[in-house]
Amino acid sequence: MLFHQNTYVDRRARLRTLVGNGLIVLIGNNDSPFNYPSNTYKFRQDSSFLYFCGQHRDGLALAIDCESGVETLIGNDIDIDDIIWTGPVPSMHDMAAESGIGQTAPMSELARLIQTAKVAGRKVHFLPPYRHDTMIQLMDLTGIHPSQQREAASMELIKAVIALRNIKTEEEIAELERAALIGYEMHTAAMRLAVRPGMTEAYIGGVLDGIAASHGSHVSFQSIVSMHGEVLHGYPSPKVLESGRLLLVDAGAETREHYCSDHTRTTPISGRYTSRQRDIYDIVVDAHDLALRHAKPGVRYMDVHLAVCRLITERLKALGLMKGDTDEAVAAGAHALFLPHGLGHAMGMDVHDMEGLGQSNVGYDEETQPSAQFGLASLRFGRRLEVGHVVTDEPGIYFIPDLIDLWRSKGTNKEFLNFDLIETYKDFGGIRIEDDLLITADGCRFIGEKRIPYHAQDVEAFLQENAEA
Amino acid sequence: MLFHQNTYVDRRARLRTLVGNGLIVLIGNNDSPFNYPSNTYKFRQDSSFLYFCGQHRDGLALAIDCESGVETLIGNDIDIDDIIWTGPVPSMHDMAAESGIGQTAPMSELARLIQTAKVAGRKVHFLPPYRHDTMIQLMDLTGIHPSQQREAASMELIKAVIALRNIKTEEEIAELERAALIGYEMHTAAMRLAVRPGMTEAYIGGVLDGIAASHGSHVSFQSIVSMHGEVLHGYPSPKVLESGRLLLVDAGAETREHYCSDHTRTTPISGRYTSRQRDIYDIVVDAHDLALRHAKPGVRYMDVHLAVCRLITERLKALGLMKGDTDEAVAAGAHALFLPHGLGHAMGMDVHDMEGLGQSNVGYDEETQPSAQFGLASLRFGRRLEVGHVVTDEPGIYFIPDLIDLWRSKGTNKEFLNFDLIETYKDFGGIRIEDDLLITADGCRFIGEKRIPYHAQDVEAFLQENAEA
Question: Which end of chain B lies in a sparser environment, N or C, as judged by fewer CB atoms within 10 Å?
Fold first, then answer.
């Protein structure tokens, strides 16, 4: 377990208080089949399950009786046939004792526990499942079809889990720092490789996978490594890197205890930004730095996002790509042609932290509601910031040929966009710069003691030093 | 697509002939959630789907009407919102045309196609699903609960797919050679790192992940990297390698087109085998080489396995670890204390090729039936070999403390086992050597032009050269 037993005991006690009554059931993850039943992807425990009990084994569930306070770790012990294949593992009893959980039960007991609670008219609280095996398990336990389970999940439990997990403690921040250190190794390796002749996107993607697994457990999401930065999720292709283009790398790691990092850098493959690239790049840098100055407790992250949109609009006007009144352009969402996504998202044990519990539950509240406008609708975190929030700061500017064609053909926001000039940027690609912000008492700071260079002159200096080495 | 269109057209025509009548439905894979719905593991297409149509996208299905010969590629085109995130992708029509498939239909049509076939009293053939999302999809399409689907799958379709995929063609062997080349890079990197002070199992595991992803698509299964070779699936731990121990590495790669390699090497961390290690190591080498001499068309692989078991028993008798009559010991399964698994399995587009279709359907037939005896029961391939079969050759000798204790306490096979001496080997670990055999007209050969060293003197020479470098 990552933390002392008391941490988990305390988290469960607070969860029980927040939920109030009924039976809480947290289902851990199972192995996920790759290409046949017994060939599985690398195991990843469910983050909420891990947060409340700290155990990494597959095939577990945790039941918490809110009224009686009885906690039960549910799962089956392994036998000699398993030991031959997997080696000795801790018993159910040992795991429960380690986590400070009072009792254990075999998996076959879970149905009876749920049935007993239901018969007594008590609510059974479960989180929305995202693994399809969990959906089948839940269907068999509750009779609810997978397509209805998200709706049937407990909003009290969802809100209680989010209330706890959204505020990162000091011991969690220390683990996020470890994740950032792996991220530093990944991104500086990618930058060094980007300027080496003959490299492919796929080769660099593999190196990132390797560093994340060597030093942590896994990448925190499938790395984006692409000369087509304008494709927001551009997975690495076997294409050889071309001098003169930009390479966008958006990648992060999970520590062995599943805390994440998430960074993006956009590197000139030739080692230097062209002046056209530099014009756009510097706007993104300034947008990125603006968020660092604006984000602090009490400020809505949606307002930081909108300040970034105004900065980008102003600066694209100066380049002649946009026109008209800045506030009106941003209100109309015209800038979203270039920035169709949000400034950031919560980050923690999930790289989009708790996204499976519903993005609007994590990043919005009664005061701040999600927007339906194209671009702003993709802002995953808009609420007022609090001390202990961790959010990404990831502005970008993209030239997406299909989107440009669509807007131009429909005349979308044509009063704010100089489509003739924009047309000449269709071969540009896209730029994004991303770091992870911790909200502190007096503002915010980037997570990561070692900083991956991002100011243009620092990037170029780094590439030159490493090309010479 | 990896091969020419004709390859896929021909495979489907042969499949239709083998199945004879009814509607064949092959369901492709979808993205598999990692820690929330939209954060997914790296996509892996289903091997049979890929074998018959060559398309790599998620969300597809293929319907083949055996009587009319009509083939339909089923799936949905993507829209502008998807293009922003994933970039432009080929249309359904373009994919179908590329694969030589006559028509396309949206996914919503699949239910109607199946319903129409059923109403007409025709059989709907599907393969046993292994992904749980596919199980839910099949449940909604057919009304069959996931727990019953394996039984409800079409044995005609299973047998037809196996008949085709079990025999590798020249163009497939060329792709397996490419996978073996990645395996060579992986294993020689692991060997070099194993003798470098301060390395951890996890670090080496990450390097293997990286090489597989850089040069192919992915490891073909989760790499086994362990000083505890006696744990058959010992995943890498953060433990630092200890001089004097052996490091067992069982790892393979998939090419971008999903053909696999699978190799095992057992390396002395000090650079040299101790004499106790060498005694055991040389037995495994000789067992490995015996399979290379015995495997050929017409020979049952179960007989090769049993010849290996006799060799191991003879040699362990010479070391004083076993005793009694060799044939009787092997008939009793006494050697399985040291070798509790089989000599090999089919390998191809799945590292245990087609294991999801039922191991006994792939590796056994009416003539050769699986055994229920401990050890022999784990032999995944026992049938007579044919030209074009690819099977692994992976003998091993392990000292598994829990198994030794269990057998000793129950007196299992005590007439063939010198438990007092065996007891002193409980700290030994385990050794396995594995390569992939292609059955040829006049015998067999290893796949892989570049050979990863495995004879003790070659391993030690390799380690010495690379330590000096």
Answer: C
- Structural element, H or E, at residue B52: helix B47-53
Question: Under an 8 A CB cutoff, do A35 and B41 touch?
Answer: no
- Least confidently predicted of A227-241, A338-352, B278-292: A227-241
Rounded distance between C-alpha atoms, residue B246 and residue B256, angstroms: 32
- pLDDT of A469 over the 60 cut: no
A377 touches B: beta carbon within 8 Å: no
Structure tokens at B318: 């010479």
| Gap between the Cα atoms of B85 and B82, Å rounded | 5
Kindly list the distances between the CA atom of residue A43 and the CA atoms of A32, A46, A74, A284, in Å, as whole numbers in the listed order: 7, 10, 18, 37
CATH 3.40.350.10 fits B5-165, yes or no: yes
Q: Kindly report, residue by residue over B122-179, the tens digit of the pLDDT.
A: 999 999 999 999 999 999 999 999 999 999 999 999 999 999 999 999 999 999 999 9
Q: How confident is the model at residue A468 (pLDDT cuts 50, 70, 90)?
A: low
CA distance B56 to B75: 12
**Whole-angstrom Cα distance, residue A164 to residue A156?**
13
Nearest 5°: the CA angle B185, B190, B191 is 100
- Count the neighbouring beta carbons within 10 Å of the beta carbon of residue A121: 7
For A86, which of B32, B233, B354 is closest by C-beta distance?
B233
Report percent pLDDT > 70 for chain B.
Answer: 100
Secondary structure (3-state) at A74: strand
Dist CA A20 CA A14 (whole Å): 10
Residue that is written with structure tokens 């912000």 in the block: A437
CB pairs under 8 A between A and B: 180
Spell out which residues of chain B touch residue A229, defining contact as CB-CB under 8 Å: none
Integer angstrom CA distances of residue A339 from A22, A409, A432, B41? 44, 19, 10, 26
Residue A374 DSSP SS3 = coil
C-alpha to C-alpha distance for A77 and A450, rounded to whole angstroms: 43
pLDDT for A171 beyond 80: yes
For the segment B375-431, what is each residue's pLDDT rounded down to a tens digit?
A: 999 999 999 999 999 999 999 999 999 999 999 999 999 999 999 999 999 999 999
Query: Comparing A141-145, A237-241, B82-86, B200-204, which segment has the lowest mean pLDDT?
Result: B82-86
- Share above pLDDT 90 across residues of chain A, in percent, rounded to a whole number: 96
Among A2, A31, A35, A51, the strongest candidate for a mutation testing the B interface, having the largest count of B CBs within 10 A, is A35
Q: Where are the domains of chain A?
A: 5-165, 170-468
Give residue B84's pLDDT. 85
Give dist(CA A25, CA A13) in Å, integer. 14
Question: How far apart are alpha carbons B304 and B319 in whole angstroms?
Answer: 23
Q: Which residues of A touch B215 (CB under 8 A)?
A: 203, 206
Single-letter code of the amino acid located at A178: R
In whole angstroms, what separates CA B263 from the centre of its chain?
Answer: 10
Q: Measured between CB atoms, does B228 come within 8 Å of chain A?
A: yes
B355 inside 8 A of chain A by CB:
yes
B209 phi, psi to nearest 5 deg: -55, -45
- What confidence tens digit (pLDDT) does each residue in A285-334 have? 999 999 999 999 999 999 999 999 999 999 999 999 999 999 999 999 99
Dist CA A313 CA A329 (whole Å)? 8
Give me the amino acid identity at A291. Answer: A
Kindly report the CATH number that applies to the domain delimited by B170-468: 3.90.230.10
Helix ranges restricted to H, A20-131: 47-53, 80-86, 92-99, 109-119
Complex-level ipTM = 0.96
CB atoms A41 and B32 under 8 Å = yes
CB-based contacts of B398, cutoff 8 Å, min separation 6: B229, B230, B232, B338, B339, B340, B429, B430, B431, B432
Structure tokens given for B93 = 């029509």
